[in-house]
Write a structure and sequence with these properties.
Length: 476
């Protein structure tokens, strides 16, 4: 069904609408919290969340994924806002979108294929831990009613699906807990306690930003960092949704779509954002699959702000914390704990280090980059092993059968394989079990031949595959 109705908006209407509504409710406290983190008015994050969600529903390459204001992006914005003001933030958000669009045009999305599975698992587990830890401040000074609210939410979230799956259990939990809180006048922290929600529409606004080389020099480093963090989190989230839904996404289209959404956000009083793993998991687990679910999350968020603002302020944080606990539990790859002792130690190390760095820095891009770098170093170390098996043929020539990869990492090892002075007059080097990858390898072969020729000996190279022959020919 999903493949047949690819890119359709209407194959899953009921579930998409209900899941979108659930996501919208979960977006509000997050958007407010991230606005505070960035040092801006709560409405900046709320505007960004609904604008990005709506735009990305049309322009994105991963159906069912939720994009909005995020903590990873907001953490980079604080210093810029503190020093230069919010207008520079709007300008930086627009420039971020332009950079991301160009990244999509130049197909940066393909780089997601270079991220090892161990890094993906580490990323997922780190996000689950971060989502869980982000809820803990809500318990500071909390009374028993708060704990009861969280417990009641979890009972509904996990219990209702045993009875019916007609509606998302998270949506029912939020509604029921809100009704109980209002009618019983419970002394619990609510969404309204997090920040002021004003019932005003965003409007088109060109940032009050003096276009000059000096001003661009101020926002360009921030925009580049935002662009990289944004596409990293978005592509990783898209990969996770691909696996959860057993479908494929257009990564380059997603990068372009994120760029367009951030340009709109900057022009309408919002900040740059990207995909949100927590809200995306809520959407997918609530049945959201098409672009309609993302669109509804944005539209209903605006409806909540404009029409139901007074009701939204009364939503108990305990209900939302309970839902996010469900997201954390559902996001964590529990299987990885059972298999960590069975997988190669290097993969386990990469996974653990990725989790540790992401949790310690709350910077997803740094964690992923560190994991990829460590994986590359481990791969390079493993690949930098080269051997030669020797034999003497009937004519007295010595044959070196080279096994391993020839590249810059094995150049010196290759040269040391040969016994230049003691070898016979004719030497055959058989490359049938190896591959020449770069100019460094060609240089190593040339140096080896030159050493033998200086001693008056003849070298015959055989077994080079066509690609290796071409590289040797081009470099010689």
């Amino acid at each position: 069904m999903y493949g047949k109705w690819k890119d359709s908006w209407l194959f899953n209407v009921r579930k998409d609408v209900l899941s979108g509504i659930t996501v919208a409710l979960a977006l509000i406290p997050e958007a407010i919290a991230f606005s505070i983190l960035a040092g801006v008015d709560p409405m900046v994050g709320l505007y960004a969340s609904f604008i990005i969600a709506i735009v990305i529903s049309f322009t994105g390459g991963r159906m069912g994924m939720i994009s909005a204001a995020t903590g990873a992006m907001a953490s980079l914005m604080g210093p810029l806002v503190a020093k230069y003001g919010i207008e520079y933030l709007f300008a930086a958000s627009i420039l971020t979108g332009i950079i991301q669009y160009l990244m999509g045009v130049f197909k940066f999305g393909k780089f997601i294929t270079f991220i090892p599975h161990s890094v993906v698992i580490g990323f997922v587990n780190a996000l689950a831990i971060i989502i869980f830890m982000a809820q803990l401040p809500s318990f500071a000074g909390a009374n028993w009613q708060m704990y009861a609210m969280v417990a009641g939410t979890l009972v509904i979230v996990y219990g209702l699906p045993r009875i019916t799956k007609a509606v998302p259990s998270a949506l029912v939990a939020i509604i029921v807990m809100t009704i109980i809180s209002i009618n019983l006048h419970l002394d619990v922290r609510t969404v309204g306690d997090m920040g002021e929600i004003t019932q005003t529409l965003p409007f088109f606004h060109i940032p009050d930003f003096h276009l000059s080389l000096q001003a661009i020099g101020v926002i360009l480093p921030i925009s580049l960092a935002l662009a990289v963090v944004g596409i990293t989190e978005s592509l990783m989230t898209a990969t996770i949704v691909d696996e959860m839904t057993e479908t494929k996404s257009d990564k380059n289209k997603e990068v372009r779509g994120q760029g367009i959404a951030n340009v709109f956000s900057g022009f309408f009083g919002g900040m740059a954002g990207c995909a949100m793993i927590g809200q995306t998991v809520i959407n997918v687990k609530s049945g959201g699959r098409s672009r309609l679910s993302t669109f509804v999350s944005g539209v209903f968020l605006l409806f909540l702000i404009m029409v139901l603002g007074n009701v939204v302020k009364q939503i108990p944080m305990g209900a939302l914390v309970g839902v996010m606990f469900m997201v954390s539990i559902g996001t964590f790859d529990w299987k990885s704990l059972r298999t960590i002792a069975k997988i190669p130690r290097s993969d386990a190390l990469v996974m653990v280090i990725t989790v540790a760095i992401v949790v310690a820095t709350s910077n997803l891009a740094i964690g992923v980059l560190s994991g990829v770098t460590l994986s590359a170093l481990i791969f390079g170390w493993r690949s930098a092993k080269i051997k030669a098996f020797t034999s003497i043929d009937a004519n007295g020539a010595k044959i070196y059968r080279v096994s391993g990869q020839l590249f810059f990492g094995t150049m010196s090892y290759f040269i040391d394989l040969f016994d230049y002075r003691n070898d016979p007059e004719t030497i055959t080097i058989d490359f049938s079990s190896s591959h020449v990858w770069d100019h460094s390898a060609v240089t190593a072969i040339a140096k080896t031949i030159a050493k033998y020729e200086q001693l008056g000996k003849t070298v015959i190279c055989i077994g080079l595959n066509e690609e290796s022959k071409l590289l040797v020919k081009q470099a010689s």
